[in-house]
Amino acid sequence: MRTDTIFYQLFQLMPNLLSELLGKVGADYQFKSVEIKELSRRIDGVFLPKNNDTQQPIYFAEIQFQADERLYERLITETFLYLGQYRPEREWLCVALWLRQSIAVPIPRHYQALAEAGLLRLIYLEELDSNSLGTSVLSLVTVSEATVPERLQKVVTQLRTLTDERLQEQLIELVEKMLIYRFPDFSKEVLQAMFTDTDIKQTRFYREVFQEGRQEGRQEERQQLIARLQQRGFSVNEVAEMLALSREEVTQLWGNN
């Protein structure tokens, strides 16, 4: 899965994250893909204010993880196409999110005026602090494999503060996707830390599949979870202990994968 797609999923779950990165704490946004009808073109990274406060700008974002000479052209062209079609009565801002400064392409001379006017901002993900849950998740894409457990522990601690169980579960799954994309062969210890420390037994998925659904025979869902753990190198005994199942139950489900 492409990393930019993963981050667009993160923005879908946490649409106020971009305004936080820009220092606009408290702004309430929704993240959308917007179609430009005349050209049958879709803009993926548009952040629209939820309220009618015209002081809150529209954000147009592009995420890039390798050098791309056409990024600014693409971002700014799409922005002006949107402004021309929808004619919003708001200020606007283009935001280019680069993985790190070393791969960032300099802003072309013909777009320098936009940057000088504050209409084009650059953010380097490797330079973010991890004070909030959103920035902690974003920073996972820049860390080395050796530092993943430590950084993951901080994400886990912040995830525990969420009262929305569904959002917590979605973010856990998204973090797993990010780690698998970065480190296809990362050790089972990393995944084990994620599952045990985030109290998988408290998630809605676990309750439905292994507790509430125990008498309903939701075997397919159980097999899917066990298969994911099996693929990451867990033994039968480790899976049984993690999911509070007997070794025989795990063996039976394991053998049906």
From TrEMBL:
This is Rpn family recombination-promoting nuclease/putative transposase. Pfam families: DUF2887.
